[in-house]
Prior knowledge:
Elements: H1 13-24, H2 31-40, E1 46-50, H3 56-63, E2 68-73, H4 76-89, E3 93-97, E4 110-116, H5 125-135, E5 136-147, H6 153-162, H7 167-178, H8 180-184, H9 188-197, E6 203-207, E7 211-217
Parallel strand pairs: 1-2, 1-4, 2-3, 4-5
Antiparallel strand pairs: 5-7, 6-7
Helix pairs in contact: 6-7
S-adenosylmethionine binds near residues 51, 99, 100 and 117.
Amino acid sequence: MMAKGYKGIGMEGPIARWYAASNGRAPDRYDDQVVKVREYARPGAEILEVAPGPGYLSIALARTGDYTVTGLDISETFVEIARAKAAEAGVEVDFRIGNASAMPFDDGSFDFLICCAAFKNFSDPAGALREMRRVLRPGGHGFILDLRRDPSKQAVDADVARMGLGTVSRAFTRFALRSFLPRRAYTKAQFEGLLASAGCTSYDIRQSPLTLEVEFRA
Ligand SMILES: C[S@@+](CC[C@H](N)C(=O)[O-])C[C@H]1O[C@@H](n2cnc3c(N)ncnc32)[C@H](O)[C@@H]1O
C-alpha cells in the first residue's frame, strides 16, 4: 500500500468544505502572500502552489494576469472545490491531485513555488523539500509559510479574531491552533535539519510570534 501523504485525518469531504467556507470569509488573508510572491516572481513566471487547499491564493495570483499558476493537492475534494472556484472567478489555474513528496512534474518546471499552512501536515517533509527543489529551475525560489511549533497564545487569538468566523468555528480553530496543530509543526532548528537533509544550503528562516517563514533557493 502507498504510504499516507499526510499526518492525521485527510482533508476530504465535509472537513474540506468547512475549511473552504471558513477561509472564504476572509479572502484578504491571502493579500500578504500575493505581495510576497510579487517580490520574487517576475511577470511571466511559472508558479507552483503546493497544497493550495481551496485555492484562494492560486486564484488571487492568476487574477494578477502576470503568472501561469499550477496547484498540487492530495485532497480530491479540495481540487474539485479549487477548480470550481477558479471557473467562478474566470481565471485559469491548473489544479492537480498529487502528493508533495512525489510530484507529477518534470525537473525544473517552475520559477517560484509557495506552500502555506500545509508543510506541518506532510508525512514525508524531507521528501517534500527534495521534490520542491527538484521541480524548481536552478536559481528559482521556494517559500514555505506555516505555523511555528511554539506560537504565542496572543498571536493565535489575534489571528483567529481576524478570520471573522462564527462562534463554533472560532472555538474549534482556536483550539486546533493552540493544541494539536503546533505539535505537528517545526521549530527553526528542526526546519534547518530538514533543509540540510534535502541538500538545501541557500535559505533564510524568519519567525513571527505565530509563523515560520522559510525562503530557499534551488
Ligand atoms: C490546512 S490546509 C492549507 C490549505 C491552503 N494552503 C491554505 O493556506 O489555506 C493543508 C493542505 O495540505 C494538503 N496536503 C496535506 N498533505 C499533502 C501532501 N502530501 N501533498 C499535497 N497536499 C497535501 C491538504 O489536502 C490541504 O489542502
